[in-house]
Amino acid sequence: MLKKLFQSLRSPSRRTQHKRSTPEVLNSGQHSLQKAQFSRYAVNIVERLQNAGYQAYLVGGCVRDMLLNITPKDFDVATSATPEQIRAEFRNARIIGRRFKLVHIHFGREIIEVATFRANHPQDEDEDSNQSSRNESGRILRDNVYGTLEDDAQRRDFTINALYYDPVSERILDYANGVHDIRNRLIRLIGDPTQRYQEDPVRMLRAVRFAAKLDFGIEKHTVAPIRKLAPMLREIPSARLFEEVLKLFLSGYAADTFEMLVDLKLFEPLFPASFEALEHNPTYTHTLISEALINTDLRIQQNKPVTPAFLFAALLWPALPGRVLRLQAKGMPPIPAMQEAAHELISEQCQRIAIPKRFTLPIREIWDMQERLPRRSGKRADLLLDNPRFRAGYDFLLLRETAGEQTDGLGEWWTDYQDANDAGRRDMIRDLGSKDDGTGTGPRKRRRSPAGKRKRAAGTDE
Ligand code: ATP
Ligand code: MG
């Protein structure tokens, strides 16, 4: 995939051709889409809007994915009706968003997103306008300038996302040579790439996301400015980045996505501390993170649940030891140093990516588990097994071992312990003997300070 990233597969000279004011029209015989494949609610919305005298199309990911025989994640509708006009047509409609106002129409659990045609922001426009605004680096802060269908096509991000399907006439309107790029498996920005990234740096992440998901290459002019502009991601509000990062890592293509993010220098502005660990300890950090992501992808493929907490726990873990050592060097005992480092690291990370509390708490618990899993004597092992975080903690231990951490066979011990019957378990605990004095193996042996005991007694998950 990486190789493909840098190749402009075909027709590099077509760079100027991806803007057109009259679309290429593909009639029903010229494409593979069938109205019946689309959500009937989405088709119904289009029909109702058209009957009310508006233009309306299915657009974006659903058209792109259908052309590639992929089941779309959701269905987006674009229309000439304003949000208020849409709401007047549908009782089950809600206007949402500020930066980008749109309408959600609810049908039971299905939500169809309906957006009014937008125009590009002229750069020299009055900046105080209520509908649109940019900051000094050209980033669009508000994007509610309505426009025509042609305008709407030009302001979309990639050519493959600017295809409009009319389920009534069963025609596709292609304003940006998107069908051509789908055939050639290329992610290509519409317009001038540098300007489009400056308007919205998140488009750099979207390029990577679609390249990984679709196994497409990124066209060379589209990839060229990314490394230089990557630091612009620091300006994006942390709540938006959290949403984007979840899409990057929980869509089933996280391992490839990670490689591309690192390669295009997009990983650093998202996870500065992990990036530093990657520089200092490349093999270990890379293995730990990519193993976690490969597992995540596999679980998604198998329809198993995945938790963002485990993912963030893995992404940040390699950044912990350096901080613990730094605090210890200042005289802090190991366990408080670990707690303090974890706290610092998560708060710093949240400045970039707003990880909600419901995930930061479990991250801490998974990390705490790593301190507790070596302490197995007496009744401790059984108490740990009953702990709701045991499974995540144990999986995390195995992950650390895969990345080369030395734990003296702790993972295998826990695997056997789970498989053993009561008598077997008692034997295993007895056999620990002097090996486990409650602190497990290695350097932690001497660390059983009163502070440590207190912390365990007040454990977060008992
Ligand atoms: P998927 O839903 O599979 O993640 P999608 O292409 O539908 O992919 P959405 O985030 O649902 O992506 O956005 C719908 C459409 O809106 C996109 O196809 C694109 O045309 C447009 N769009 C979304 N985000 C941007 C952006 N940051 N800049 C320009 N256009 C965008
Ligand atoms: Mg979509």
Task: Provide tags for this entry.
alpha+beta; Beta Polymerase, domain 2; cca-adding enzyme, domain 2; two-stranded antiparallel sheet; 24 helices; 50% helix; binds adenosine-5'-triphosphate
The CATH top-level class label of the domain at 23-184: Alpha Beta
Mean pLDDT: 88
- Described by its quaternary structure, the protein is single chain
Name the beta content range.
5-15%
Please state the CA-atom Rg, rounded to the nearest Å: 26 Å
What is the CATH H-level superfamily of the domain at 23-184? Beta Polymerase, domain 2
Domain Polymerase A arginine-rich C-terminal: 330-449
Domain tRNA nucleotidyltransferase/poly(A) polymerase RNA and SrmB- binding: 215-273
Function: Adds poly(A) tail to the 3' end of many RNAs, which usually targets these RNAs for decay. Plays a significant role in the global control of gene expression, through influencing the rate of transcript degradation, and in the general RNA quality control.
InterPro entries: NT_sf, PolA_pol_head_dom, PolA_pol_I, PolyA_pol_arg_C_dom, PolyA_RNA-bd, tRNA_ntf/polyA_polymerase_I
